[in-house]
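Researcher: Dear colleague, please comment on this protein.
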Amino acid sequence: MASKELPADKSGKSDDKKGGGLILPLAILTLLAAGTGAGLGIQLASSVEKVVSEKAKEKPPEPDSPPLRYASTDTVMEPLKPIVANLAAPSKTFIRIEASIIFKNGALADPKIAAAQIRDDIMGYLRTLSLSQLEGASGLLHLREDLDERARLRTEGHIDELVIETLVVQ
């Protein structure tokens, strides 16, 4: 079979050059889309800037939160040394507590001595607890209440609160 050549168009152009008519409209549409996108981006950015500047000019609302419980200057916080003790059951389980006592300035004659006495009392109390008494949120709440009550008894009611800062049971 003999190879056949395709006849040339009357204008003398072959078929591979006919796709050039599609590139020009695509380039124009691309430039038009890029220009429209840039214009919208600038417009949106300026409107966002206006809204942000208006919000910044507005006065922030007053917080509805009540004043802090111990915000006065006559309240003192005395940290206790970390307390580490074995629990009663299981005997290989230990507990570590870091706590602080909060009291009015001048309520305790010597806060360091009171803190040491409270620490010793808490250590003795922790040795009587079992792990099941500390489980869950209610266990933590009961522990907090018991330690707070023991600290108040030890200082004859001169402290306001015993705050548990950290509690680790291992």
